[in-house]
Amino acid sequence: MSKNVTELSFEHGVLLKSYDTFVAVKRKDGNHMVTSKWHSSTTTRQINNFFGGKEITEEAAKVSQALLDNMGKFLEAYHK
Fold it and tell me: Which pTM does this prediction carry?
């Protein structure tokens, strides 16, 4: 992973942060989530690498950026 990528592990999976933006969640139960907001080709590549391929990314539920931001803020506060 790139130096601009952070992964936050939690009980049900892993949250991906690209630069300062939370963009995807890989859940242990397979109910993956990805932001519905497009950020950049670099972020798209990071998301595809995180999931292990574009095909898996395309199958992930598209969720609001606000939902991922709230999850990320909560997890960062929890991990401190």
Answer: 0.90
Give the C-alpha distances (Å, rounded to integers) separating 60 from 75, 78, 79: 21, 25, 25
Q: Quick check: 71 and 25 in contact, CB under 8 A?
A: yes
**Which tens digits make up the pLDDT trace of 49-75?**
999 999 999 999 999 999 999 999 999
Q: Which amino acid is located at 14 in the chain? A: V
Residue 56: phi, psi to the nearest 5? Answer: -70, -40
Angle made by CA atoms 29, 34, 35, in degrees to the nearest 5: 150
Beta strands in 1-80 (DSSP E): 5-10, 13-18, 21-27, 33-35, 61-63
- Which helix or strand (DSSP H or E) is residue 48 part of? helix 41-51
DSSP 3-state of 56? helix
Under DSSP, is residue 19 helix (H, G, I), strand (E, B) or coil? coil
